[in-house]
Fold this protein.
Amino acid sequence: MEAHLTPSRRFETPIDLYHAVKKSWSADTISDPFDPANPARNQCAVTSLAVQHYFGGEICKTATKGGTHFYNKVDGRFWDLSTDQFDEPIPYDNTPTSKDEAHEHASPAHLAALIANIEANT
């Protein structure tokens, strides 16, 4: 990566980021206990913030039986990089939300840890 490029240029598509994110979730990236058997569990807020960090776009939310689920809309397309946590399909409301609401579920320290893990894993 050239020094003058912003972090958003590091990954060509959200799919490229997805492969790095899967290796980057950890106990440091969430408040809830980390589940190695289901590493995506409860990682949606911090993941949506990381996607916005790299690609911009909007953070969206939907209601699930487990609570609020966060994901992204980038260039008119919806991307849910933490959908692996669910054992059944979820209905997407595609309700726009804010970075502040996502931060109610993921602290700045969680986001910093995830970004550091992503950078270390790529």
Remarks:
- The helical segments are 14-22, 44-55, 99-103, 108-120.
- Residues 1-8 have pLDDT under 50 and may be disordered.
- The first strand starts at residue 58 and ends at 64.
